[in-house]
Amino acid sequence: MEGVKAEAREGAAVAQDLLALGYGGVPGTASRGASCPDFRALCVRLAAELATLGALEQQREAGAEVLSAGDGPYAEEDFLRQLGRLLRELHCPDRALCGGDGAAALREPGAGLRLLRFLCSELQATRLLRLRSLLDPSPRPPLGEGVVEGAGMVQELGLTLQALGLPRPAPGTPASQLLQELHAKISELQPSLPPGSLQPLLSYSLDAPRWEALESLSQSLRDQYRCRRYLLLKRLDLTTSAFHWSDRAEAQGEAMRAVLIPIREVLTPESDISIAHVLAARADLSRLIPATSMAVRRGTCCAINKVLMGNVPDRGGRPNELEPPMPTWRSRREDGGPQCWGRKKKKKKK
């Protein structure tokens, strides 16, 4: 019952999106997926507008048809083959629809509505970007121009090109061409790696509920690490402030602050780890290596490891080694002398 209600809500949302885009409502046979000609025709219209607005540069340059509904006996197979290329080009997050068995995935309950929802969202975003470019005719700076050197994305891209041995791109190079060159270079170098390399740590396909669970888990970990980092930074501030209490620090206070402040300002409680790092993590990240192993010690061994500490004074701090003192009993005194309570023994007569 809950599944039927959820599918009905999804169908109403998709119908509202299609009406907002100027298309008709969701066909009644959308649950049949690619086997329905009306469903294929609607997907063809959405994909054609995406290509017209420039969201599918590769397909437009090749001059090939994005999607074709067809009427022959192999119309469904041709549609699914073209649909797979389209979804991969649009970077669809639904792995079930992008997989090899697209026909089986589209026959699942609600899969056709998910496909229409994704195409509608892509078309809405493409229309907004096109409208913004029309309202703001100023040319955008190409890659590498108008951006502060060392900024996050530019710096990461420069390090990637340097690691792959590729030259710096010329000004005005399209991002799609640059990504194609990176993909070709990585595909060329991948066979030279040892077997099993670059295996993803997260090997499960992520559907919508798993994406939501992963985002919730990521947010919970970010909140927890923010609290821990804030505590560590507070301890750091208190420790460094203690160095300024001595008399010798009065003369070197400004020099100490000049060295410490630039380092301290970079440290923030916020963590920069996101879901993208989880998706990019490889299987070898889960390999636990002891810190005392020979392989690790080759990179961490230094001359200071051979320095032995001399005798240091015993500062105590071990209450388990001390016995608690036994209390002594003293009788109550009135005039300064000891008092004896109880009866006095009578002396025996001789």
TrEMBL record:
InterPro entries membership: FAM98 (IPR018797)
Pfam families membership: DUF2465
Region Disordered: start-end pairs: 313-350
GO cellular component terms, semicolon-separated: tRNA-splicing ligase complex
PANTHER family for the chain: FAM98, PROTEIN FAM98C
Family listed: Belongs to the FAM98 family.
Protein's recorded name: Family with sequence similarity 98 member C
Name of encoding gene: FAM98C
